[in-house]
Amino acid sequence: MSRIEKCFEQLKTDGKKALIPYITAGDPAPGYTVELMHALVESGADILEIGMPFSDPMADGPVIQLACERALAAGTNIRKVLEIIAEFRQVNQQTPVVLMGYLNPIEFFGYQAFSDAAKEAGVDGILLVDLTPEEATDVVECFRSNNIDLIYLLSPTTTPARAKKICDLASGYVYYVSVKGVTGSATLDVDNVASHVQSLREITSLPIGVGFGIRDAQTARAVSQCSDGVIVGSVLVNAIAQAKDSTQDQVADALRSILSPMRSEMDK
């Protein structure tokens, strides 16, 4: 059983839902990220999603696009991301870590080589936004060989037949995109999200995390009541941008001030 599976099993036993924050590795500089990861865990995170900076992040809105630009300008590449995860693992061996990014850098690195390096660093899952199920067979095997879960996105426009095909390839959990658009998009309709999540439960037994558009504790609580996990990204990345010239401790405190209330509301 993977760390991700164990995490969801324990949460289910405890009657809780997963809080899954996202930050971009190397933003605002590589030296910040490990401390920010620890701060997120201390604030109630159950799983960490760490973005691998890329020059053309097509699923992301301006906030995360700019985070990628800052990280790349600071010298963050795939090897540096893996070094960051390995450093985090020196202290924390329990919290699952999912890398989120795009195919191009991984293809250049080599799928099996990347999978091997990710396993050694302590990565538990990978979400590749532009990896379609039609092209995934060989890639899936590379990650499965190292017990790394392949997380997939599902959107409001995904047909039931395609959703079933995707869920059959996925492991760990599936990521339901709550709005039509990019990260940081407009306010979400929780009732509509609940309806789509219920439909997905008819085709998969995997946990369902919901992301895009979750900006405050009240929305996090509402989404947690109809899903297995709440994924929070742009509001945290924006806080990093606002505090990018501050000390590591100040940036970490900014993230705590957002995530801790979400954890508290979700646990009520």
Automatic annotation (TrEMBL):
Entry EC number(s): 4.2.1.20
Pfam family, any one: Trp_syntA
GO molecular-function term, one example from the UniProt record: tryptophan synthase activity
A GO CC term attached to the entry: cytosol
Signal sequence extent: none
Keywords: Amino-acid biosynthesis, Aromatic amino acid biosynthesis, Lyase, Tryptophan biosynthesis
CDD domains membership: Tryptophan_synthase_alpha
Catalysis: reaction(s): (1S,2R)-1-C-(indol-3-yl)glycerol 3-phosphate + L-serine = D-glyceraldehyde 3-phosphate + L-tryptophan + H2O
InterPro entries registered for this protein in UniProt: Aldolase_TIM, RibuloseP-bd_barrel, Trp_synthase_alpha_AS, Trp_synthase_suA
Annotated metabolic or biological route of this protein: Amino-acid biosynthesis; L-tryptophan biosynthesis; L-tryptophan from chorismate: step 5/5
Active site: 49 (proton acceptor), 60 (proton acceptor)
UniProt KW Nucleus keyword: no
Summary of the function given for this chain in its UniProt record: The alpha subunit is responsible for the aldol cleavage of indoleglycerol phosphate to indole and glyceraldehyde 3-phosphate.
Subunit and interaction comment: Tetramer of two alpha and two beta chains.
Family statement: Belongs to the TrpA family.
Protein name: Tryptophan synthase alpha chain
Organism: Marinomonas communis
